[in-house]
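Below is one such record:
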Amino acid sequence: MDFPTPDLWNSLTGYGYVGVFAASLLGSLLPFVSGPYIPPIIIAVMAGRLEPLPTALVSALGAALAKLVLFRLFKGGRLLLGHETRKRMQPLERLVARHGWIAVMGAAATPLPDDVIFFILAATNYSSKLFLPTVFAGKLIITTAVAYLSLYWGNLTCYIVECALEVNVVNTVLIAVATATAAIGIVYLLTRLDWAKILVKNNEP
């Protein structure tokens, strides 16, 4: 069983920029899955249906909004943290508030499962208001790169489409579960550390 199918992406991109936006939004709502918004960009641009820059913009917007939804859901998990744990993490939260945007943009600009980073940042109370514009900027970097690669290097992107679309659902689920498990493990470790001592030792205010 393969998902998503070429027919799904073709049907969505057939609706133009709205279809690309929908494909990006829906695909990116799948947590801990790698780059589901990329194939519709490649198909739409290579087929000559859409221009690369507006395609990149609507795809980045759809992906960013989906990631915001997931980020807010991840952040809800902070309710499970006890008072002492939250107090212990406050120095880390201050550090993340200053420098977290680097991690958000860096993760968003790659085709790797960025939800690992977003899950960790949600646990450290990174600002939702700062998250949206930063994740959009990161997604715009990768969607623009993919769109123009699709326009000028068709043979390469044909190969990428074939690989990206023929994804076995069992393998995808297993990778997503393993990635989510790793993210939970990292967050658990972060909650057990004494961040006041660690950051003072490393000269962080």
Observations:
- The radius of gyration is 19 Å.
- Residues 6-201 form one domain.
